[in-house]
Amino acid sequence: MTQDSPTPTLLCLPNELLRKIASLLPKFTLLRLRCVDRKFASIATPHAFHSLRFRAYGDEPERFMHIAESEHLRGFAQEITCDTWIGPHFEFRHNHDYKIPSSFFDALPFISLFHNTKTLNLRFAYDCGGYEALEETPRFRFRILDTIFNTLAGTWSEDKQREADKGLNFPYYYKYDMGKVPSGISKSLITLKTLTISNLEDFNNTKFTTSKAFKAVTNSPSLVDLQLYIATHTKNFDREFTTSFPEKYKMFESLPSTWLRPSVAKHLQTLSLYCHEPWGWYPKMDFRLLDMPNLRVLALGNFVFSHQWQVEWFGSLGIEKFYLDGCSVLFQAFSEMKLDESSTVLQKPGAEDVRLSNEGYLARGTRRIGNYYDEAPLQPPIRWHTLLSHWKTSLSNLRVFKMGLGDWDDAPSQTIEAALHGDPYKSTDPKVARQPFTYNGFRYFDCPTPEITGSDIFRHGTGIDKGYDDMFDYQYWDDKYESYDSVWEEREDDREDMTEDDWLEEYGEDEARSLEKDARDKDQAALDLMLSMIEARMMASK
């Protein structure tokens, strides 16, 4: 370089390298770069508008509609997040007047203008409104889901929406007058690649799951990534889960015929299923009814393993990544409900019917049978080392395996710091700033990802904590789930207030069936051996 040569600048770099740099920059920096000059604008704009979010808060719906109406900007959007959060002023289940801004309802159909959208993140509130609460009731959630899915399917129209709203018979605090309608709305299907729903209500609304719009969107071969975080109805402000809500059991039992029906499951490459409370045994979810030949990534949150068939079934998958987030094994169960003695017939085209036994599950919808408890026949019993020892060889494609507990509902401080560092546009209200980072554990179970380094490593979440103390958790069921260790801590405390004979009369039979003293050692040894085998497999493939 001679003395008269111009000083090199960032613009001297090839456009391909500049675009790569732009893809790593935070949004607020990209928005500033758009104002530098035309070249920077052309580089920064696609990344600045790649992901869009609008909540039912402030002027966010209006800003979303403004971008949607821009033919230049809307084509860059490939990810949209729609959030029903109405702001920091409102606390659920406190009997406040609840009214979602009409602009939020207006904004929903504008999603159809973003033809290049590949990812949709739909976020509801953690609390499910039910018969005793005003907020986010089943009718409200149906209205949101129905509008969005008709929008995605290309079947939304103003007349159809008005007619649907009449049929919902909304109470006064949900009613609104449609103020704005998108022009030139698309009549073609938006082919999503990824669909995530935070706090999906544990209620199978058949009006929605049998609708043409729902089937059109979920049947698309392009939908290969489905992530659901299922919310549960609670008894009170303290979010104590209730087992008396029958619809939740129908919800889980219906998953293989609704969200995971064969036409959906056969295309899935990634499946994330989480729930607020333990599930899998009760409420029952029978994975044997699913066929997912293309599945590569599976993440389960709060799933309870209970049956020997699960050892073989999960071990037969061709998955490459497996995440168990807050999962447990059912050790012992007592119930006032009748045990299931039925079987399910699985029909496969071109093959003989398969009869699946439902033994070892509780029979849904039954009541107390006398004054005694039935011990659920969980024989042969499974332990964590039973599962892990089998999977270490049967899951021959496995490249990543993590178990522990992640940050599901709270926003990790490392994530907030990484995502908002230096952002001059971040809200001064901490609740407003941190809210987008809540309820994301079911989406970011694989974080931190290898492609993110430095201070941004936790930008999307901290992932599963593999140092979780209760990693090898066992559950005890006595009309509700309790940690096996907690149950026995309470029983040992009772020894101080009872004679030994009384204690043995109360718990002696259970003590004889207690968890083997070396079970946790076997569990840890099985996990270590499984991880070693995966590491050796990875080294051999290099």
Automatic annotation (TrEMBL):
<dbReference type="InterPro" id="IPR001810">
    <property type="entry name" value="F-box_dom"/>
</dbReference>
<dbReference type="InterPro" id="IPR036047">
    <property type="entry name" value="F-box-like_dom_sf"/>
</dbReference>
<dbReference type="Pfam" id="PF00646">
    <property type="entry name" value="F-box"/>
</dbReference>
<feature type="domain" description="F-box">
    <location>
        <begin position="7"/>
        <end position="57"/>
    </location>
</feature>
<protein>
    <recommendedName>
        <fullName>F-box domain-containing protein</fullName>
    </recommendedName>
</protein>
